[in-house]
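chain below, 163 aa
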Amino acid sequence: GMQAHAASSNTINGLAAYMRTQNSSLSVSKSRQLAQTYVKYANQNNVSARVLMAMSQCESRFTERAYNPAGYYGIMQTTAQLGRTFGGVSANKLFNAKYSIKTGSAYLAYNLRYFNGNYTKAITGYCAGTGAAARGASTRPAKVRLAVKSNIDRYMSSHGYDN
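prediction:
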């Protein structure tokens, strides 16, 4: 499976470089800080950091202050309710990438447990709601995000970041 593990500085540098290919306004230091945050909360929640990144890319193009008037906040585009439940924070705090990634990773972990480790269903639950995913919501958004995760994998190996 996609097991989390401690990331080398080479891995952090690679994840950071990848993010800058998607969002040119990210500085080297900001992208490295984001990479470390993805890895930290991925490890804490036993989820894939690259899946979290793929989700952020699709949700916000790694934009920390992204806002959708439908009520989605931050780099991981979670709701105020998810922020309270999974991040222990108010909606405004979700504009800080640390709290958005903390919330998003915990919510993905919740969905992974609910769907017995199935990333396609877990990501569907993240995007459509756990109940909707359980009732058979479209898995297309999940497939798009997993394809982005494969792009990250390819970038990392082709640029020599996977050691």
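The mean pLDDT is 96. Residues 140-158 form the longest helix (19 residues).
thats it, cya
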